[in-house]
Amino acid sequence: MSETAEARLKRMAMRSWRRGTKEMDLILGPYGDARLAAMAPETLDLYDALLHENDQDLLPWVLGQTPPPPPYAALIAEIAAFARSRLAPQPR
Question: Whole domain around residue 57: which residue ranges?
């Protein structure tokens, strides 16, 4: 029996928040909350694959310390930009 679209989104959202490291929880959790529901099917597939990657690889990719594998490059750039925008000082 295959997973429903709703169950898949719930699983991916939970996996975004429950990583191996707190740093990746705080990067992927908010990103998943904000973007998963609107992702195109091919982007969902790519993000699902990304969720299976090791946090010790993901964090340097997101921080720009090491280049991500080419299939993930655009998605990692989007995640990094999203994280930076959340951490940027807000005007008062």
Answer: 5-86
In a domain, 14, yes or no: yes
Please give the model's pTM, rounded to 2 decimal places.
0.90
Cβ atoms of 83 and 27 closer than 8 Å: yes
Per residue in 15-27, pLDDT (tens digit) is 999 998 999 999 9
Q: How far apart are CA 53 and CA 58, in angstroms?
A: 7
Quote the CA–CA distance of 36 and 8 in Å, as a whole number.
10
Q: What is the CATH number of the domain that holds 12?
A: 1.10.150.250
Residue-wise pLDDT for 40-50, tens only, equals 999 999 999 99
Residue 1 neighbours by CB under 8 Å, 6+ apart: none
- Cβ distance 27 to 78 under 8 Å? no
Residue 34 within a domain: yes
